[in-house]
Write a structure and sequence with these properties.
Pathway: Carbohydrate degradation; pentose phosphate pathway; D-ribulose 5-phosphate from D-glucose 6-phosphate (oxidative stage): step 3/3. Its EC number is 1.1.1.44. The protein is an alpha/beta fold. The chain folds into two domains: 167 residues, NAD(P)-binding Rossmann-like Domain (Rossmann fold, 3-Layer(aba) Sandwich); 241 residues, N-(1-d-carboxylethyl)-l-norvaline Dehydrogenase, domain 2. The protein has 20 helices and nine strands. Bound molecules: NADPH dihydro-nicotinamide-adenine-dinucleotide phosphate (NDP) and ribulose-5-phosphate. NADPH dihydro-nicotinamide-adenine-dinucleotide phosphate binds next to helix 1, helix 4 and strand 6.
């Protein structure tokens, strides 16, 4: 491409950066990518679709000089210090009006700080959440932009071109002010943690409770993926059970260590939810379970100390599979409900103006939490754009009601059989509290007033009251 300038630049040619850039090229944009590792710039060029314009360079200044003005650049580097390092290296090379996008999983408070810092230098900075993993980035991710509307207008045609499509509609929309894009992506990941935890519980309930082997588990999850549980995570779970290990004759899932890692977005969701406050106990539980998974030595020691009850579920296998299906459906709805309630409250508290009807539409395709349920929620928000919690929608309520009895049965059986199912239990407990008009928390308020003169409100008259409680023994 002698003498011509490139439409778009990418910094960081790892899993996401390389694939997103190739996706842009496939949609007719001329692109240039920078990575300090020359093997990655070479790999970028050799992976390009013939006929597309893709260049890889190991010199940041050379990349910036070859971009069309105003420049449009994205970085896909690890969150935290690397993002600040890239900004510091870029700043002397940029001009007022240039657009810099952070497409990684940055914490929204870092994004707020960077937006402010770069605004002072007349550089547009946008935090954009991208979901879909390696394959999604290459063929159509879900994209969650937030921040500067003027900058968004400049990159909107490109983002709409590369995003996943659902019925022809691109899975990208402007999702609010300042750090909103990264806030929405953080909560997306919190919901992702929750649903992954629930699927792992369904797996253990079927495996330990009913003795299903990997082929049977594949069939169950595959059939679930053809019905009301249809989703990306259920689909890949079905695949996982069939994968053979190339080092042994075993199925790969059986030789993978049970320590689950994390990069922090689930934990941030829990932390920020506590801060607001808004209750997201299924997400909290999912984060905690990954933490407990790391206590391998302690768990092995405890296994010797505390013999497990008989884990067999004494129900007809087909009946048990149906009950676990229903419990997974129930708790998945609860996971979305908690995440969306957090977005509602976070948007209000932080004045981000996040449009929830758009969020659920953007999540319908391309992202890790895409599922047929997002269509249900899209309809719910069409009925009421101000819905504080999707559990208050009548359509959602009828779906939840249809599976509640089986969910209660699964939770009771899991408790009796000693099979850990904290996600299901937590979803059910949240639901039972949420649908209770008068909880037992009047007693907590009485205790607070008893020991700390924290006062209380009454059910029968307005005002704030304190009692000198009598000590009765
Ligand atoms: N993988 C996934 O499924 C998803 C990841 N994300 C997020 O996207 C971002 C990128 O992730 P991913 O592509 O998986 O990560 P990778 O580790 O595959 O790639 C990161 C790239 O960033 C480069 N890099 C690291 N530090 C710097 C630096 N200081 N300056 C310049 N370049 C740097 C690395 O270069 P080098 O190796 O040459 O040092 C590498 O090419 C992260 O924030 C991640 O959380 C978002 C959605 C999905
Ligand atoms: O953003 C993503 C998916 O949406 C990334 O894959 C992220 O790394 C997942 O989180 P974790 O690594 O903590 O499981």
């Amino acid at each position: 491409m002698a003498n011509s300038l490139y439409d778009f630049g990418m910094i960081g040619l790892g899993v996401m950066g390389r694939n997103l850039l190739l996706n842009m090229a496939d949609h007719g944009f001329s692109v240039i990518g920078f990575d300090k590792d020359a093997t990655k710039t070479g790999a970028l060029e050799s992976a390009a679709t013939p006929g597309t314009t893709v260049k890889g360079v190991a010199d940041l200044a050379a990349m910036v000089q070859q971009l069309e003005r105003p420049r449009k650049l994205m970085m896909l580097v690890p969150a935290g210090q690397p993002v600040d390092d890239v900004i510091a290296s870029l700043l002397p090379l940029l001009e007022p009006g240039d657009v810099v996008i952070d497409g990684g999983n940055s914490h929204y408070t870092d994004t707020l700080r960077r937006v402010k810092y770069l605004r002072e230098k007349n550089i547009h900075f946008m935090g954009i959440g991208v979901s879909g993993g390696e394959k999604g980035a290459r063929t159509g991710p879900s994209i969650m932009p937030g921040g500067d509307l003027e900058a968004y207008a400049k990159v909107k045609p490109m983002l709409e071109a590369i995003a996943a499509k659902v019925n022809g509609t691109p899975c990208v929309a402007y999702l609010g002010k300042e750090g909103a894009g990264h806030y929405v992506k953080m909560v997306h990941n919190g919901i992702e943690y929750a649903i992954m935890q629930l699927i792992s519980e369904a797996y253990t309930l079927l495996k330990k409770g009913a003795g299903l082997d990997n082929d049977q588990l594949h069939k169950v999850f595959d059939s679930w993926n053809k019905g009301s549980l249809q989703s990306f995570l259920v689909e890949i779970t079905a695949d996982i059970f069939l994968q053979k290990d190339d080092k042994t004759n075993a199925r790969l899932v059986d030789v993978i260590s049970d320590k689950a890692g994390s990069k922090g977005t689930g934990k941030w969701t829990s932390q920020d939810a506590m801060e607001l406050p808004v209750a997201v106990p299924v997400i909290d539980t999912a984060v905690a379970m990954r933490t407990i998974s790391g206590y391998k030595d302690q768990r092995l020691a405890a296994e010797q100390l505390y013999p497990a009850p008989d884990a067999t579920i004494h129900l007809n296998t087909e009946q048990w599979i149906q009950q676990v299906h229903d419990a997974l459906y129930f708790a998945t709805i609860l996971s979305y409900a908690q995440g969306l309630a957090m977005l509602n409250e976070g948007s209000r508290e932080l004045q981000m103006e996040i449009p929830l009807p758009e969020v659920v539409k953007v999540w319908r395709g391309g992202c890790i939490i895409r599922s047929t349920l997002l269509e249900v929620f899209t309809q719910a928000y069409q009925q009421n754009t101000e819905l504080a919690n999707i559990l208050l929608d009548k359509g959602v309520a009828s779906l939840v009601t249809s599976v509640i009895a089986n969910t209660r049965s699964v939770v009771a059986h899991a408790a009796n059989a000693g099979i850990p199912a904290a996600g299901f239990m937590s979803a059910l407990s949240y639901f039972d509290a949420f649908r209770t008009g008068r909880m037992a928390t009047n007693l907590i308020q009485a205790q607070r007033d008893y020991f700390g003169a924290h006062t209380y409100q009454r059910t029968d008259m307005a005002g704030t009251f304190h009692t000198e409680w009598e000590h009765h023994n």
